Amino acid sequence: MPSTLPAFQHSLTTAIAMLVITMLLFVAVIASKWRKVPPNKVMIKHVGTRRMFVKRGGTIEIPIIGDCQYLDLSPITVPIIDDSGFGLRPSVTVCIDSESDESLGRAADRLADLDSEDLRRLVTDLVEQSKYDIGLRAEDVHPADAFDASLRARLAELGMRMIGD
């Protein structure tokens, strides 16, 4: 009487090999979709109508379901030309405010598509608008403080903040 044990062992070995290959393929696919978030960036992950922010580590990106964008958290320093004699600081350093999802949401809505040079131009324009604001309010006792308050408010609308004050 022939033994069926070798046939069973052969099919079991084949099944185990197929399972191992399937698991390795699954791990390879997941690893290829893993997106690392650098320390100076925040990832905006769009999934359907929802938006999530990934600040550290990484996440899996599935292109069919959603996409990812990055916000650069690097500080931007812009010179301030005090041609009005108000005693303004010589420069201002700003960055995207990553402390709250609300601020990140404003930054994602308004700044995600800008490159670093466009962002620098935008901050320079905000500085000029704030200088114009204090020029209109010449009665301010401390024009430098009025400038800082005006610039802080304009930056907050964009999800940004001043650094070092």
Question: How are the elements arranged and paired?
Answer:
Blueprint (H helix, E strand, L loop, with lengths): L4 H29 E3 L4 E7 L2 E5 L3 E3 L5 E7 L3 E4 L11 E6 L4 H11 L4 H21 L6 H15 L2 E3 L3
Structural notes for this entry:
Helix content is 46%, strand content 23%. Helix 3 (116-136) crosses helix 4. The strands form three sheets. Strands 3-2-5 form a three-stranded antiparallel sheet, with helices on one face. A three-stranded antiparallel sheet has the order 6-7-8. It has four helices and eight strands; from the N terminus they run αβββββββαααβ. The model has no long low-confidence stretch (mean pLDDT 82). It has 165 residues and is an alpha+beta fold. The chain has two domains: 1-34; 73-162, no CATH class. 15% of the residues are buried.
Task: Please sum up the structure shown.
By secondary structure, this protein is of the alpha+beta class.
